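Structure tokens please, single chain.
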Amino acid sequence: MKIKKGDLVQVITGKDRGKQGKVIVAYPRDNRVLVEGVNRVKKHTKAGQTSRGSKTGGIVTTEAPVHVSNVQLVVEKDGKKVVTRVGYRFDDDGNKIRVAKRTGEDI
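Here you go.
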């Protein structure tokens, strides 16, 4: 998967199109990523009590995973944020390095 934890991405399709956020978790097996502030859903949690007696539960708003094909990496070029595709190249030691296709810079 070309998107990794900690990357800044932009949503390119869906209800949150145009929003940018940081990748919190990547799920390579499912081809999904969890992006901060994107695809927020309301989750109903069962009411209960903590050991101190306070009530828990209710409606909690949280992020849900987004398919990796619906996000694009954002890199900075001359102070501007640019969305780009990701490619790979190998350095002299044979290490695989991610490269921004639009800017040509290493990520």
